[in-house]
Amino acid sequence: MVSAGIAKSQGYAVNALTIDYNQRHSRELESAGLIARTLGAQRHVVLPLDLRQFGGSALTSDIDVPKEGVGQDIPVTYVPARNLVFLSLTLAWCEAIGARDIFIGVNALDYSGYPDCRPEFISAFQDLAELATKAGSEGDRFTVHAPLQFLSKAEIVAKSYELNIDPAMSWSCYDPTPEGLACGLCDSCRLRQQGFAQTGRTDPLEYAVRL
């Protein structure tokens, strides 16, 4: 959400891509649609990709989402190569529509240790984009923007208000309740609540458990 808002504030026309990978937290698809409409996206594509066929993650198989707190190891909520898959699909769409700037909201500070959020990965993918595409091989280079890369969650929260983007539109929880509430205890919920607390603001999202 904030990454797209930054792109718009910098004068880019926004085309939004959401991957419906049959994730446990499919509530985020509804949020993605609202955000795309609010930001005036020229087009919003929701692309189906059933990663439950692969499994290997608490988000794509019947593995419990950890609720004990943010640990040091890569958690079971890691989806194998997810951002690599997502960026590859985004790159293909960009080349098809003539876009050359890709914005992704990965963060390397307050996150759960996912390897595909690291700046080294983003840099390597940009190099790969040049090699893997007709446009890149002809010198029409792509740029991968990760404007949230080195921001804390608190700084991201503050940025949303600076851009006049309502954070209530966004969704972070990995394991929403049957009633549609954010659980409040998964890694993503904990980091989000911590970010709001550090700014002195109240998170407008509804939680089953608010820390």
UniProtKB/TrEMBL annotation:
The keyword ATP-binding applies. CDD domains: QueC-like (cd01995). SUPFAM superfamilies: Adenine nucleotide alpha hydrolases-like. Keywords: ATP-binding, Ligase, Metal-binding, Nucleotide-binding, Queuosine biosynthesis, Zinc. InterPro entries: QueC, Rossmann-like_a/b/a_fold. It catalyses: 7-carboxy-7-carbaguanine + NH4(+) + 2 ATP = 7-cyano-7-carbaguanine + 2 AMP + 2 diphosphate + 2 H(+). GO terms for molecular function: ATP binding; ligase activity, forming carbon-nitrogen bonds; zinc ion binding. Zn(2+) binds at residues 173, 183, 186, 189. It holds the Pfam family QueC. GO terms for biological process: tRNA queuosine(34) biosynthetic process. Its cofactor is Zn(2+). Binds 1 zinc ion per subunit. Its EC number is 6.3.4.20. NCBIfam families: 7-cyano-7-deazaguanine synthase QueC. This is 7-cyano-7-deazaguanine synthase.
